UniProtKB/TrEMBL annotation:
<feature type="domain" description="Glucose-6-phosphate dehydrogenase C-terminal">
    <location>
        <begin position="189"/>
        <end position="475"/>
    </location>
</feature>
<dbReference type="GO" id="GO:0009051">
    <property type="term" value="P:pentose-phosphate shunt, oxidative branch"/>
</dbReference>
<keyword id="KW-0119">Carbohydrate metabolism</keyword>
<dbReference type="GO" id="GO:0005829">
    <property type="term" value="C:cytosol"/>
</dbReference>
<protein>
    <recommendedName>
        <fullName>Glucose-6-phosphate 1-dehydrogenase</fullName>
        <ecNumber>1.1.1.49</ecNumber>
    </recommendedName>
</protein>
<feature type="domain" description="Glucose-6-phosphate dehydrogenase NAD-binding">
    <location>
        <begin position="11"/>
        <end position="186"/>
    </location>
</feature>
<feature type="binding site">
    <location>
        <begin position="90"/>
        <end position="91"/>
    </location>
    <ligand>
        <name>NADP(+)</name>
    </ligand>
</feature>
<feature type="binding site">
    <location>
        <position position="147"/>
    </location>
    <ligand>
        <name>NADP(+)</name>
    </ligand>
</feature>
<keyword id="KW-0560">Oxidoreductase</keyword>
<feature type="binding site">
    <location>
        <position position="234"/>
    </location>
    <ligand>
        <name>substrate</name>
    </ligand>
</feature>
<keyword id="KW-0313">Glucose metabolism</keyword>
<dbReference type="InterPro" id="IPR036291">
    <property type="entry name" value="NAD(P)-bd_dom_sf"/>
</dbReference>
<dbReference type="InterPro" id="IPR001282">
    <property type="entry name" value="G6P_DH"/>
</dbReference>
<dbReference type="GO" id="GO:0050661">
    <property type="term" value="F:NADP binding"/>
</dbReference>
<feature type="binding site">
    <location>
        <position position="181"/>
    </location>
    <ligand>
        <name>substrate</name>
    </ligand>
</feature>
<comment type="pathway">
    <text>Carbohydrate degradation; pentose phosphate pathway; D-ribulose 5-phosphate from D-glucose 6-phosphate (oxidative stage): step 1/3.</text>
</comment>
<comment type="function">
    <text>Catalyzes the oxidation of glucose 6-phosphate to 6-phosphogluconolactone.</text>
</comment>
Length: 480
């Protein structure tokens, strides 16, 4: 049965910006090309610049089209850009919002209006206030908030409180693009839709869990942004904690947005809080330093020479629930590491039955660069006798279906159009995550201890290896 497509108006604030050009418009094109957008669905690009629609389309032609890497035809492109209009709307100019309202209300056939705030968060409050003043916060309006949603707990609470003055929680879609990744979503059916995993997915069988997001790139031209952000805010508070929730949560009552988000919230709330002394013991921060032809962080453009911002962080966390009592969760992320990857690793306890020696199974769920699930097993060596050797059983997610696999942003944009909230963060989850990282931020702000260092293109500082060594563990790349 063909899926019902919702008619929509999508108003993109920040339409001239980098995110809109590189991601939002190309992803909407892909949805259009696949026939997944309602034929009358409209895209209203808005920003401060004084442009008309044809100026804007010329910019889209120049800055956005180049980011469409597949399924491009001139015919589809021409039909796609028919959907696009441009309006000048300065978030601080109430009169501009009257014009926006008139444009949105110029047709009656809209199932929903989506307001995508792809701007710096300081514009969220005036934008929401001005939208509400012209009635663009009615029940059929959904508002999408781009990250970063705050830089600490108080600023995150402030943003949420500002938006909540004008929009109900069920109208708010907080973006974390990791939730748009098929291979992260796949953790739920893998765990709760198969008989294999759930019985062993707990402290009795799992020795430790590792969650890694590794980037090969350095800060490139984003030194100024990165230096006030750092790895903890950029990656851990959001993406890594979301990955952790999928691995650690209990089975939700249903797949409804609130049932899923209730279970995720319980995981974040059960993360053991850290004192400052715990931070010294369980958290490693580091900066990359020059190696061979690669610059160190402090030599990057727009980075102060005395910066203490971390480009790497590793954390030993624990989750205080009956399922996970005592199991270390090692979380790490960094720039200029040896490889690009995002993965979840479950290291199982050694199997001690005496017949085949003491071997430990391992499950690796890889989100990037490949989307695979690999189980390390022990199998018979070829030849006489019954000696065993390690082997990997690999499920390549790319081969499970011939369907086109959409990029995370496209999938999330379609979820907003369809009004499904489960892949978006609820306010309480987000604020709990901030609550948990706050002692780390506070410790670092006051600590006399400088960040550790690691050579560019290595796997991070020695201190991160020591963090695991104290439990008798090693990171995935050092495992045999
Ligand atoms: P950007 O390139 O700096 O663009 C900012 C946009 O905001 C421009 O369209 C600008 O319009 C608009 N703007 C500025 N002041 C305005 C005002 N007073 N009224 C209306 N519009 C105004 O930023 P970006 O990289 O696209 O990022 C947008 C948001 O997404 C940021 O919060 C960023 O942190 C987040 N984000 C970005 C990326 C990314 O890859 N770029 C990834 C994740 C999250 P004018 O050009 O007309 O001035």
């Amino acid at each position: 049965m063909a899926q019902k497509l919702n008619n929509f108006d999508m108003v993109i604030f920040g339409a001239t910006g980098d995110l809109a050009m590189r991601k939002l418009l190309p992803c909407l094109y892909q949805a259009h090309a696949a026939g997944l957008l309602h034929p009358q669905g409209r895209i209203l690009g808005v920003s401060r610049s004084q442009l008309n629609t044809s100026d804007f389309l010329a910019k889209v032609e120049k800055d956005s089209k180049i980011h469409i890497k597949q399924h491009f035809t001139d015919e589809l492109w021409q039909s796609f850009i028919q959907r696009i209009q441009y309006l000048t709307v300065d978030v601080n100019t109430p009169e501009h919002f009257q014009t926006l309202r008139q444009t949105v209300q110029s047709r009656s056939q809209t199932d929903n209006v989506i307001i995508y705030l792809s701007t710096a968060p300081k514009f969220f409050a005036p934008a929401c206030k001005n939208l509400a003043e012209v009635g663009l916060n009615a029940d059929n309006v959904r508002i999408v908030l781009e990250k970063p949603l705050g830089t600490d707990l108080p600023s995150s609470q402030q943003i949420n409180a500002d938006v909540a003055q004008y929009f109900k929680e069920e109208q708010i879609y907080r973006i974390d693009h990791y939730l748009g990744k098929e291979s992260l979503q796949n953790v739920l059916p893998l765990r709760f839709g198969n008989v294999f995993f759930e019985p062993i997915w707990n402290k009795d069988f799992v020795k430790s869990v590792q969650i890694t997001i590794a980037e090969q790139l350095g800060v490139e031209e984003r030194g100024e942004f990165y230096d006030i952000t750092g790895a903890l805010r950029d990656m851990v508070q959001n993406h890594i904690i979301q990955m952790l929730c999928f691995v650690a949560m209990e089975q939700p009552k249903s797949l409804s947005a609130d049932d899923v988000r209730d279970e995720k919230l319980k995981v974040v709330a059960a993360l053991k809080p850290m004192t400052s002394a715990d931070v010294d013991k369980n958290v490693v921060r580091a900066q990359y330093v020059a190696h061979e032809s690669q610059k160190g962080y402090l030599q990057e453009n727009n980075v102060p020479a005395n910066s203490r911002t971390e480009t790497y962080v590793a954390i030993r966390a624990e989750i205080d629930t009956p399922r996970w009592q005592g199991v270390p969760f090692y979380l790490r992320t960094g720039k200029r590491l040896a490889a690009r990857s995002a993965e979840i690793v479950l290291n199982f306890k050694e199997q001690e039955n005496g017949l085949f020696g003491n071997h430990a199974n391992r499950l690796v769920i890889s989100l990037q660069p490949d989307e695979t699930v690999s189980a390390k097993m022990f199998v018979k060596q070829v030849g006489n006798g019954l000696n065993v050797q390690a082997a990997e059983m690999v499920l390549d997610m790319g081969k499970t279906s011939n369907e086109r696999r959409a990029e995370a942003y496209e999938l999330l944009l379609r979820e907003v159009i369809d009004g499904r909230l489960s892949l978006f963060n609820r306010r309480d989850e987000l604020e709990k995550a901030w609550e948990w990282v706050m002692p780390i931020l506070e410790n670092w702000a006051n600590s006399p201890i400088a960040p550790h260092t690691y050579a560019a293109s290595s796997w991070g500082p020695k201190a991160a290896q020591d963090l695991l060594a104290q439990d008798g563990n090693v990171w995935l790349e050092e495992q045999i």
